[in-house]
Amino acid sequence: MDDQDGYFGERVAAAYDESSGDMFKPGVIDETVGFLADLADGGRALELGIGTGRIALPLAQRGVQVHGIDLSRAMIARMRAKPGGDAIGVTVGDFATTRVDGTFSVAYLLFNTIMNLTTQAEQVACFRNAAAHLEPGGCFVIEVLIPELRRLPAGQNVVPYHVSPTRWAFDIYDVATQATSSNYIEVVDGRGEYRSIPFRYVWPSELDLMAQLAGLRLRERWDGWTREAFTSESRQHVSVWEKPAD
């Protein structure tokens, strides 16, 4: 682990935007940005874990004033190097506790990043921090997966999701503590490398309680950014909590 930048040091930052994952597809980005721009409704937006600017940059291009918080200087530098990146304000720090000036119409934490906070106390602190930055009537948005415990065979704690002759990727779950980790083994030129990143998975109902502790209330929950119905078969959710206006 890179101590200064957490698990998102220069090596990860350099390759982050090369991912072929759905989150980088133009249609997904457009849907996400449209959803957040509607909530901002002309106001300011605060991105917790702004990273390389995947969402912040196109959101700013929509006319929304965006400020970000991120621990990784390497990720921030990648955003700064992109067109428009130097115009977005960023505060370096832990998004669970770092405060910035002013209030915002919307704060958001995307792509499972709430799980990078590996204790319940840190996740609760994140909700309180987001709520403290919101103006009355403002919203906090989280995008996060549903823990895939239904895929665990009886007596096992590992869920593989990529297997090839040179690369293996799998998640390990501890259902007693909600601790999990994503693990990667890669063989290049006959040499093997192992990398593990810890997370804490969290259920929608638990997030609702965290929101309540922070003085927020659930406004809406969807399966995705195009507002599909959230059901027991959903594998992820986009949830919006609102700070009461009075």
TrEMBL record:
Question: Which superkingdom is the protein from?
Answer: Bacteria
Per its UniProt record, what Pfam families does this chain match?
Methyltransf_25
Instruction: Name the keywords, alphabetized.
Output: Methyltransferase, Transferase
Matching SUPFAM superfamilies: S-adenosyl-L-methionine-dependent methyltransferases
- GO molecular function ontology, one term from the record: methyltransferase activity
The cross-references to InterPro entries, in alphabetical order and at most eight, read:
Methyltransf_25, SAM-dependent_MTases_sf
* Domain Methyltransferase stretches: 46-138
Tell me which Gene Ontology terms the entry assigns under biological process. methylation
The keyword Transferase appears for this protein: yes
The protein's name in its UniProt record = Class I SAM-dependent methyltransferase
